[in-house]
Each structure stands twice: as C-alpha cells, then as structure tokens.
Write a structure and sequence with these properties.
Low-confidence stretches: none
Radius of gyration: 14 Å
Mean pLDDT: 88
Largest sheet: none
Oligomer: single chain
Number of helices: 3
Strand content: under 5%
Length: 73
Amino acid sequence: MTPEKVISMFELQFLEGKAPVNVEYVCAGFADWLASAWEYLDGEEKALLMSVGAALWREGYNRRAGTATNDPW
C-alpha cells in the first residue's frame, strides 16, 4: 500500500458519498482510538495524528457554523 493509494481511497470514499456525514461522531471515535493507542506511539506519530484530529474537529466546526462544502476542489 502506498500513501498515494490511501489518498485515492479517501477521495473515492468522498466521491461515492461514503464519507461520514456526522464528523463529530468520527472525531470522537478517532479521539477514543488515539487515547487508547497513545502510549504506543512515538512523538512524530502523535504529532501527525493530532493534526488529523484537528482537521476532523475543524471540519465538524465548519459544518456546525455552516461554512463547509461538499466540493473537493
């Protein structure tokens, strides 16, 4: 598996409408998983995953504020 393949899978999920509508639910699930894995991660992994969590949180915030879009470009 390559990073490009994973990104392609993310895009396909979005384009097929399979991306979760409830971003808050996804963010909470991610936070739960990250909390349970925290002690097994190194500093770089933690920083990267915290960035992912922040992006999820921001998307949820934007949706609540009415500024989110479904247009990937």
